[in-house]
Amino acid sequence: MTTGSNHPSFPRGFAWGAATAAYQIEGAVAEDGRTPSIWDTFSHVPGKVANGDTGDTAIDHYHRFREDVRTMAEIGLTAYRFSLSWSRLRPTGRGPANERALDFYRALVDELLDHGITPVATLYHWDLPQELEDEGGWADRDTAYHFADYAALAARALGDRVSTWTTLNEPWCSAFLGYGSGVHAPGRTDPADALRAAHHLNLGHGLAVGALREVLPTDAQLAVSLNLHAVRPRTTHPDDLEAARRIEAVGNRIFTSPLFKGRYDDDLLADTAHLVKWDALVHAGDLAEISRPIDLLGLNYYNPTVVSSAANAGDLPRNDGHGASAHSPWPGAEDVAFHLANDRLTAMGWPIDPTGLSDSLLSLYREFGVPLLVTENGAAFEDTVAPDGTVHDPERTAYLHDHLAAVSDAIAGGADVRGYFLWSLMDNFEWAYGYEKRFGIVHVDYDTLVRTPKTSARWYSDVIRRGGLA
Ligand code: FCB
Questions:
Q1: Between 312 and 53, whose confidence is greater?
Q2: Closest atom of ligand 1 relative to the 437 alpha carbon
Q3: pLDDT at 215 > cutoff 50
Q4: What pLDDT is stored for residue 370 in this prediction?
Q5: Ligand 1: distance of its center to the CA of 240 in Å?
Q6: How many Å apart are CA 303 and CA 313, to the nearest integer?
Q7: Are the C-beta atoms of residues 442 and 59 closer than 8 Å to each other?
Q8: How far apart are CA 295 and CA 56, in angstroms?
Q9: Torsion-angle region of 198 (φ positive above 0: left; ψ -120 to 50: alpha; else: beta)
Q10: Residue 314's pLDDT is what?
Q11: What mean pLDDT do residues 88-93 have?
Q12: Would the CB of 227 count as within 6 Å of ligand 1?
């Protein structure tokens, strides 16, 4: 079916969304019983975050959520993906629920529902309670069980009004940037711990799915959001193909194979055998837990990943886009070189290439047959505020347009894609980059916290009203 435009239409009921995450927007880090998460600790370590920025206040969404939901309604969003703060809902990571936190999230969800916006809750967007990190964090198996308990607690409190849940956001980043390269909290740099963390995140996901199914109504939709790398070998040289295989193994299949096939792939186990004893790490029954069926797979996509063997890298610029560190986030694939796919870069230095999104959606759907959501996609640019207060961001609009066109191409090619959540609704705390990088379609003045929709927000409104691209 076509709309008369160059782009096939999006299916009826397609979710037109935007995404945020708790630590990036909420602030109020010491209010109403919340205890510190690993990002509170990490952001306060000098040198870890640009300009010494922290999420202490962030954009004060905790106090301004009603205004923010009004903005979403004005844009016309039909869905909103946000994350729950574990250490707010369950201070210290264990024990009873914090009623004041439940009140906050219930009020947020009710406000969304009153405005006809479907809430999509992410249980874990990188903010592990610090007390659990002190006991070993994700490198420790117990954390997976604590996560499932917290998931059940959150679902008991909100399951009457939230029906779509994603367990983890980008476990690759949690494991490999958090415990491998150390550019994210908790800032540890041990490749073996990074692999342990990856398995325990997978296990935590599976245990949480089991716990959520027990608590939630049968029509609840359960998902996980993965930043699967759209890996491309730079040449067809066998060494470059081998580099691509390694990155696919430790970047993608370390999550998708246990999730959808109930196994870790032999090549991954071989590549990393010198680092961990997988037989001891993976207990009997773990893979059955991890491969519990889910209803949707969330894909977070920003740019393709072009790789070669280090020997074939030459003088080309090398960049895996994940921040500078003396420690690799790629255990067992440390000798792979990363290249820019092209030189059309966002302010993050990430190349713009929407074909990676359509390719990924099509290949995921072909391989796993699971309905898909794009749970993140977007771009940072150097936005400027005009003297009249407007923020004109044509580059972001073009990025979003071209990536939505890629989603529609994937749908036309047969992929079952149910929604698109752009990153991000509002400018916010961009992890190790602090407030330097702006991804929002709504501008935030960090002195006054005044929100101003950018022209990309007006454009998105039109897309949503039309139900597709012009
Ligand atoms: C993703 C994160 C999200 C945001 C975007 C730019 O990796 O999930 O919180 O930082 O990148």
A1: 53
A2: 6
A3: yes
A4: 98
A5: 28
A6: 19
A7: no
A8: 35
A9: alpha
A10: 78
A11: 97
A12: yes
Note the pTM of the prediction, 2 decimals. 0.98
Do residues 354 and 331 lie in contact, with contact meaning Cβ atoms separated by under 8 Å? no
Q: Mean per-residue pLDDT for 424-435?
A: 98
Query: How many other CB atoms are found less than 10 A from the CB of residue 392?
Result: 14
Q: For residues 371 and 297, is the Cβ–Cβ distance under 8 A?
A: yes
Q: Is 14 in the pocket of ligand 1 (CB under 6 A)?
A: no
Q: Catalytic: 289?
A: no
- The structure tokens 């995404």 sit at 19
Structural domains in the chain, sorted by start:
15-466 (3.20.20.80)
CA distance 408 to 1: 11
Helix axes 394-412, 355-368, angle to 10 degrees: 30
Tell me the DSSP string of 357-398.
HHHHHHHHHHHH---EEEEE--------B-TTS-B--HHHHH
Amino acid at 262: G
Q: Which two tokens stand for residue 121?
A: 């809750």
Is 376 tagged catalytic? yes
Distance set, CA 237 to CA 243, 304, 311, 399 (Å): 10, 19, 11, 32
How do residues 157-184 score in pLDDT, each as one tens digit?
A: 999 999 999 999 999 999 999 999 999 9
Q: In whole numbers, what is the pLDDT of the chain averaged over residues?
A: 96
Residue 3: the pLDDT is 42
Residue with tokens 């020997």: 311
| Best residue among 184, 431, 439 to mutate for probing ligand 1, ranked by most atoms within 8 Å of CB | 431
Res 74 pLDDT > 50: yes
Structural contact between residues 453 and 403, judged by C-beta atoms closer than 8 angstroms: no
C-alpha 139/C-alpha 409 separation (Å) is 40
Asked if residue 48 lies in contact with residue 432, where contact means CB atoms within 8 angstroms, the answer is: yes
Q: Is the pLDDT of residue 1 over 50?
A: no
Q: What is the mean pLDDT of residues 142-168?
A: 98
Q: Residue written as tokens 């009203």?
A: 465
Q: Tell me the sheet residues that pair with 230.
A: 304
Q: For residue range 240-259, what is the model confidence (pLDDT) as tens digits?
A: 999 999 999 999 999 999 99
Options 26, 133, 170, 248, the catalytic residue: 170
The rounded radius of gyration (Å) of the Cα atoms in the chain is 21
